[in-house]
Amino acid sequence: MIRPPRNPFRPGVGLQPEYLAGRDAPIAQFRRVLEGTPDIPGNARITGLRGVGKTVLLKRLQEVAEEMGFATIATELEPRHCDEVTFHALLTRQATELAKRLSTMERVRQAAAEAVNALRRMATVTFEGFEWSLAGDLDRATHDVAALLLEVTEAALKAEKRGLVLFFDEAQVLVDDKSATGSHPLSSLIAAVSTLQKQGVPISLVLCGLPTLAVNLLSARTYSERMFRGFKVDSLGFEDASKAFTEPLASAGTITADPDLVTRVVSDVEGYPYFIQLWGAELWDAANDAGTPQINVAVLDAIEDRIHERLDLDFYEPRVESLTPAEQDLLLASAQCTYPPLAVAELNDASTKSNDNVNVLLGRLVKANVLYRPRKGQYLYTAPKFREYLQRRTEQA
Ligand SMILES: Nc1ncnc2c1ncn2[C@@H]1O[C@H](COP(=O)(O)OP(=O)(O)OP(=O)(O)O)[C@@H](O)[C@H]1O
Ligand SMILES: [Mg+2]
User: Fold this and answer.
1) In terms of domains, do 244 and 386 share one?
2) 20 to 30 A Cα–Cα from 333, which one of 29, 30, 146, 234?
3) Cα Rg for the chain, rounded, in angstroms?
4) Could you give the CA distance from residue 141 to residue 139 in angstroms, rounded to a whole number?
5) Are 149 and 74 in a shared domain?
6) Measured between alpha carbons, how far apart are the two ends of the chain, in Å?
7) Confidence tier at 7 by pLDDT (50, 70, 90)
8) Cα–Cα distance between 70 and 221 in angstroms, integer?
9) Is residue 59 one of the residues assigned to a domain?
10) Which ligand 1 atom sits nearest the alpha carbon of residue 277?
11) What is the DSSP letter of 128?
């Protein structure tokens, strides 16, 4: 049996595309940031909308760090990690695994938790011949994180690495509790890394997530803004978006696309990487089904509805199906408002709910990462072209 050629497009979550378009500049910049460490502490904050290519870029940056000789720890955070205890348990596990991978000294190979306990009792720590205080004015949680990170960085150095780079994806889930007794996982992490960096410890922090992350960082620590090099992952410009579409076709080598079609796809999807992969995958299948080696605008016209159905099912619906009916109602009402941004005043008029209720629901939609609040009274959707999706839903209803 002759198998049909493999579809060269990769619509999905964090799936490495055949061709990584338009990210040479941030990759080069990141390399420079790491190159300057530890003399200039190098941390990065990567933000962008859903499906714009953050995870894929983050994985590439991790490879870059490893190529440069750094040890790395990469984690995709989940909402439960917002709790300090769970977050610390995760860090400990990751640290232990890395220490094992580096297979250095016996002391390091022991459970990292033991090391933390030992360090907790010490007022000072020796690092590269210097003795410095861990205790200082650090609170307990921050101290524990700093001690753990110091331990792994030492393990990395002993394994002849240049230092340690920590990568956290979906980092918008780390939110500090406003009460003094609550969890402060984000502040602890930042303070721990900053303390170590001030002592010249070669450690770097890369936080990646939805634009909410930038907002959270601002409220976590006043100095956090200056601590991170900001990278905004955005939709691709025309040329890069075209390449994201044509390069996978070229590498597969069996199907070509009309220039008109390329222009139309790029403009329909506004250069958003996930959409390019999805449109490409569907067009590829359609061409194969029809047995044609050339795809054109007519093929796209014929399957456009099907593409939108898959888009809604795969990309948008998983984000709204866990919401309550009231939250979903408010989202549908928001599609009648002008955008961007979504103004609360206008939403209050468009919704049948009381202003107080609207406010509560907006707060919950932010927590669910469907919206974020760039400034007071204004909201933005975290997924691109989300308003069009809501309008399609309204039409269907
Ligand atoms: N630079 C790029 N060129 C081509 N395709 C890309 C590029 N970046 C991402 N993609 C594709 O876009 C899709 C989404 O990528 P990715 O999962 O990295 O996005 P994300 O921003 O992490 O999304 P989310 O916010 O949902 O986690 C994947 O199918 C991936 O293959
Ligand atoms: Mg991602």
Assistant:
1) no
2) 234
3) 24
4) 6
5) yes
6) 45
7) very high
8) 27
9) yes
10) 29
11) T
**Residues 323-343: b if buried by 16+ CB within 10 A, e if exposed:** beeebbebbbbbbbbebebbe
Q: Nearest C-alpha to atom 17 of ligand 1 is from which residue? A: 14
Q: Which pLDDT score is estimated for 158?
A: 87
CA distance 292 to 119: 67
Q: Which of 271, 290, 316 is the last residue of a domain?
A: 316
Ligand 2 centroid–CA 170 distance in Å is: 7
pLDDT digits (tens, 9 = 90+) for 73-91: 999 999 899 888 899 999 9
Show Cβ contacts of residue 379 under 8 Å, excluding neighbours closer than 6 positions. 341, 342, 344, 362, 365, 366, 371, 372, 373
Q: What is the Å distance from ligand 2's center to 357 Cα?
A: 31
Mean pLDDT of 123-137: 54
Residue with tokens 């170590």: 196
Question: Whole-angstrom Cα distance, residue 253 to residue 247?
Answer: 10
Find the range with the poorest average confidence among 46-55, 216-225, 327-336, 354-363.
216-225
Statement to judge: residues 227 and 252 lie in one domain? no
> Domain residues for 338?
322-396
| CB-CB contact of 83 with 52 (8 Å) | no
The structural domain count of the chain equals 3
Quick one: 110 and 80 in the same domain? yes
pLDDT confidence of 100, banded at 50, 70, 90? confident
Testing ligand 1's pocket by substitution, the residue of 20, 54, 56, 62 carrying the most ligand atoms inside 8 A of its CB is 56
pTM of the model: 0.91
Tell me whether the omega of the peptide bond preceding residue 211 falls within 30 degrees of 0, making it cis. Answer: no
Pair 358, 254 in one domain? no
Instruction: Map tokens 């408010």 to a residue.
Output: 330
**Under 8 Å between Cβ of 60 and 231:** no
Question: Is 200 found in the same domain as 55?
Answer: yes
The per-residue pLDDT for range 32-64, each reduced to its tens digit, is 999 999 999 999 999 999 999 999 999 999 999
Task: Tell me how far apart the alpha carbons of residues 328 and 389 are, in angstroms, rounded to a whole number.
Answer: 13
Strand-pairing partners, residue 130, are 127
Residues whose beta carbon lies within 6 Å of some atom of ligand 1: 10-15, 17, 20-23, 48, 50-56, 244, 273-274, 277
| Whole-angstrom distance, CA of residue 17 vs CA of residue 132 | 46
Q: Which residues contact 244 (CB under 8 A, 6 or more apart)?
A: 17, 19, 21, 22, 236, 273, 276, 277
